[in-house]
Amino acid sequence: MTDYTTSTSRSGVETDETSELIASNIVEGTKVYNRNEHIGQVYNFMVNKRTGQVEYAVMSFGGFLGIGESYYPLPWKALTYDTSLGGYMIDIDKRKLEEAPSYREGETFDRVYGKRINDHYGVPYGGV
Amino acid sequence: MTDYTTSTSRSGVETDETSELIASNIVEGTKVYNRNEHIGQVYNFMVNKRTGQVEYAVMSFGGFLGIGESYYPLPWKALTYDTSLGGYMIDIDKRKLEEAPSYREGETFDRVYGKRINDHYGVPYGGV
Lengths: 128, 128
Fold this sequence. Notes:
Largest interface: A-B, 49 and 49 residues
Helix content of chain A: 10-25%
Shape of chain A: globular
Oligomer: homodimer
Strand content of chain A: 25-35%
Structural class of chain A: alpha+beta
């Protein structure tokens, strides 16, 4: 059972993280890599309320204390969990990444926006 | 696009919630109902790191300011999102619910524990 040791959260509830599961309240900060370069960290997951499938990992990077940070929704289908790195990996040309759609204030995360993101990363759009 | 209006989080990042997606950092507090009775709220989601599938919604109830609260992992397969209630619904005999496995300090969320939970709710165990 050594694979399933758990950490303890502030509230004393165990199982924040097992080898296969991660608690949604501690995903923030999980590292994101492009190939082997650390490019940012998970800000949150966008979860389909009905199916329970994570559709996007929103990556944040830059800024200081949350000011000036940029946010990039990465389609789940474009990510791989790398157990050795302990984080998510995307495999994309650096320029393509720099041109990726980022959140802006007032942005509406509708189907058009979702499709635009998935198209950018070249993965099928599953319907947000 | 009225179906996809969004809320704004403290950081100014939009899309905390659309009609189909919910941000992992705001799932806490989503109401849980047994049939039509409000029985608790979501504490967190336990997400499969590789597949991105939510496997359990951990429900909390009782206590005060986090002290004395009880935590119950509910298999995703046993839950339905009810748009009219704006929360998750389980359909289970009240006595069965009272006898449900709850987290205890020192609990290890291994396969044995996962299987025990799913068995209790009568849903197939997909492998934690």
